[in-house]
Design brief:
heterodimer, A: alpha/beta, Anaerobic Ribonucleotide-triphosphate Reductase Large Chain, 15 helices, 42% helix, B: alpha+beta, Alpha-Beta Plaits, 3 helices
Chain lengths: 452, 87
């Protein structure tokens, strides 16, 4: 029988260390909704989403109540719209985005991801229409998230898409300048995108996935931080062991929630994403873990090594606890969504360049980074190209979610609200890369041997 | 299914009695019970048999009872503890 101490340990994690299941994300294939008529297509995707996800929110809440652990978000990911809507006779996909927004509202989920395209090698006609539709789609919807995969280790980097992405980020920033360019927070650009990632804004339902699936994202930076408090000053072996043990326990909860959700919704279980995802709440921060490791401010020398330790040991502990691990799995390092990361950026400890180095050893990349509103499109494309190169060469997922906050300059503060938090505007290099970005074409795939 | 009931709050007369009375009236068997008081702070753990019981209904009643008594009452499925602490 479960002991008193075990019950207390679990409940202490939930009540004092912010242990939660960050998201139950239902992946839904829209491939069978194909139709050349836009109205019929919209009706079909609306019906399919609202039917499949009818009970998603209520089941998520029911499981949370029974287990006593919060299930923070219930979300939906769909087949990339550039693929699902490729055959639709229309000039843009904004109406489709609005339909997705209505379907998300009807089911009660807070985000629906997959208004995106996979263009790592080139853009087909549907991809082009989709990319051009993204600024208006995100500006005119509330719950729709968008992503583009513009690079991969196998295909190289589609620099035409990278150049265009810089431009559309500026457009969506302008369209939503009244809200600190919030549309950019709902858009992410990837290298080696994961087809089963349950986290937003980058979630989509890959074409190799089954019709409907349940993916779960676990979290718990606060739990790791609390566990490390008990090993202050101990050596690295002890540090790693403590992270592993904690990640194991967190993931077991995620696995249980995923299995229960799959059973009750009668939908197959897909994967657990073992990511440490911070929130703006005190005690739910990745940078607080660095502080506990011995680096009081993120960005100080040693931060990349600390992050590498954290990321690797979360995976080592987590993979033992779940039968299927997937998604992004690692540590997220968003700036605005983590109060201590935002503070480190504010006092100058954390720079964009250091953040870029850190992304080489963790999951995802430059995340929720606010930059001056007058940063030009080519510079944004240059930042994206750098991040894509890190992912391509290192055979890992990297991403950029960057917000040029229109009307604000370095040192000002952007407020995004809720889980998106707030962040200081970080300065960007003033030196141009325009001629490099404007070359056009594709950077070839890297060599797969002679790894040095 | 087994349920874990955690009761926390300032000590007063009748906490255990009221909780157990409700469980008895609901036909719920108590399998294990332990209780401590540290500096006037009451802390009780109960393991109860929830077989064939409507979880949400019992949970709602316990919440109301907790508010009535002035303590925090939490009912959880044992599964979360098994998942985390047993392989």
């Amino acid at each position: 029988m479960i002991s008193r101490d075990e019950i207390k340990e679990t409940n202490r994690m939930i009540e004092h260390s912010n242990l939660d299941v960050r998201t139950i994300t239902m992946g839904i294939s829209l491939l069978d909704c194909a139709n050349s008529d836009e109205k019929i297509f919209c009706q079909k995707i609306y019906d399919k989403i609202t039917t499949c996800a009818k009970n998603l929110v209520s089941v998520g809440d029911e499981i949370a109540r029974e287990l006593g652990v919060p299930v923070v978000n219930k979300r939906i990911s769909i087949t990339p719209i550039a693929i699902a809507a490729a055959g639709v006779n229309t000039s843009d996909y904004v109406n489709i985005a609005k339909t997705l927004d209505r379907a998300a509202a009807e089911t009660g989920v807070n985000f629906i991801g997959g208004f995106g395209a996979l263009v790592q090698k080139g853009s087909a006609s549907g991809d082009i229409k989709l990319i051009e539709s993204i600024p208006a789609a995100l500006a005119h919807t509330e719950r729709v998230c968008s992503s583009l995969n513009v690079a991969s280790t196998r295909s190289g980097i589609n620099m035409d898409a990278v150049a265009q992405t810089g431009k559309i980020i500026k457009q969506m920033a302008e369209l939503t300048k009244a809200g600190d360019s919030i549309a950019c927070a709902k858009f992410v650009v990837f290298c080696n995108a994961a087809e089963d990632n349950p986290f937003m804004a980058g979630a989509f339902h890959g074409v190799s996935e089954r019709d409907c699936v349940i993916n779960v994202g676990v979290s718990g930076p606060g739990v790791v931080k609390s566990a490390l408090e008990s090993v202050r000053g101990a050596d690295f072996e002890t540090l790693c062991e403590t992270i592993k043990r904690t990640a194991f326990k967190i993931t077991r909860v995620g696995q249980l929630v995923a299995q229960e959700a799959a059973k009750r919704l009668n939908v197959p279980f897909g994967i657990i994403d073992l990511s440490l995802a911070p929130t703006p709440a005190i005690g739910d921060s990745i940078a607080e873990i660095f502080a506990e490791m011995g680096i009081p401010f993120a960005g100080a020398p040693g931060t990349t090594a600390a992050l590498a330790i954290l990321n690797d040991n979360v995976k080592k502990g987590g993979v033992m606890a779940s039968s299927y691990v997937g998604g992004l799995s690692g540590a997220f390092i968003p700036v605005s969504e983590d109060h201590a990361m935002a503070h480190a950026a504010e006092i100058g400890a954390l720079t964009l360049e250091k953040l870029e180095a850190m992304t080489a050893v963790c999951s995802v990349g430059l995340d929720m980074v606010a930059v001056p509103g007058d940063t030009d499109a080519d510079t944004i494309s240059g930042i994206i190209a750098d991040e894509m190169a890190i992912g391509m060469i290192n055979n890992k997922t990297t991403a950029v979610r960057i917000i040029p906050v229109i009307g604000k300059k370095a040192g000002d503060r952007a407020e995004f609200g809720g889980l998106l938090g707030s962040a200081p505007i970080m300065p960007v290099s003033k030196f141009s890369c325009a001629d490099f970005i404007r070359r056009g074409g594709r950077i070839p795939a890297p060599i797969h041997s002679f790894k040095n | 299914m087994k349920g874990i009931i955690t009761v926390i709050g300032y000590d007063k007369v009748g906490i255990i009695a009221k909780i157990c009375m409700f469980l008895s009236e609901s036909g719920i068997n108590v399998l294990d019970i332990s209780q401590t008081i540290v500096q006037g702070f009451f802390n009780m753990l109960m393991i109860v048999d929830m077989t064939d019981k409507e979880f949400s209904e019992i949970d709602a009643h316990l919440q109301n009872l907790g508010e009535e008594i002035g303590v925090s009452v939490k009912l959880q499925s044992e599964e979360i503890f098994n998942a985390m602490h047993r392989i």
